[in-house]
Write a structure and sequence with these properties.
Blueprint: E1 9-12, H1 17-27, E2 33-36, H2 52-67, E3 71-80, H3 91-94, H4 104-115, E4 122-132, E5 138-149, E6 165-167, H5 180-186, H6 188-200
Parallel strand pairs: 1-2, 1-3
Antiparallel strand pairs: 3-4, 4-5, 5-6
Length: 206
């Protein structure tokens, strides 16, 4: 049986500013007091699982147990069919420099170099959302957006690998070229969030 979140504080277990903006905007109508892991000084736990849901659970449980409040974590990634689904759960790793900083242009360039010349241009974004409580209970949901990868990257409105992904229902625009409201209405994170909201969140506007 699903557990429903009560109104109150919710920790968003992310240090990614782009994800924070996107998820916080989705949570706003549900009457939750949202704080990020970065705001409360939580470290980023090691993501050692081989699935998006597994890594999201690691982050959500760590934040819930450290703060004593329910926590929501996102784990998402970009996959390319010609690369066997890579970078997938290692999406952030492909953009991580030797000094630990992240350069998503470098990550996108690596994708293009490895997939260059492939006839199959299919690609997809996956988002897993896990809601965790301090007692260890979790609820998980996953969404996916299909499309194709493009080169060179286009647009500067998104974050991460958005500029090289053209969703199949995007009218020829990449996620990096879409206005946020349009992107958030139907992307992988919105699809996962719709499931989460229906099953576990307080009613919007209540």
């Amino acid at each position: 049986m699903r557990r429903t979140l009560e109104r109150g504080r919710l920790v968003l277990a992310t240090h990614n500013a782009g994800k924070l903006r996107e998820v916080a905007a989705m949570l706003a109508p549900h009457g939750l007091e949202v704080v990020s892991a970065g705001e409360v000084g939580l470290p980023e736990p090691a993501e050692t699982e081989n699935t998006f849901l597994g890594n999201a659970a690691i982050k959500a449980l760590a934040a819930a147990r450290a703060t004593g409040s329910p926590a929501l974590a996102d784990d998402s990634g970009f996959s390319v069919a010609a690369l066997g689904g890579d970078p997938g759960v290692r999406t952030a790793d492909w953009a991580t420099l030797p000094d630990g900083a992240r350069d998503y242009m470098a990550g996108m360039r690596t994708v293009e170099e490895r997939a260059r010349g492939a006839a199959d241009r299919r690609a997809w974004f996956t988002c897993a959302l896990v809601l965790a409580w301090p007692d260890g209970h979790t609820e998980g949901f996953e969404g996916r957006a299909d499309g194709r990868w493009v080169w060179p990257p286009r647009g500067d409105l998104g974050f991460g690998y958005d500029p090289m992904f053209e969703p199949e229902d995007g009218g020829g625009l990449t996620f990096g070229e879409m206005e946020p409201a349009r992107k958030h209405a139907s992307n992988h994170r919105a699809r996962a969030f719709a499931l989460l909201a229906r099953e576990c969140l307080p009613p919007a506007g209540g």
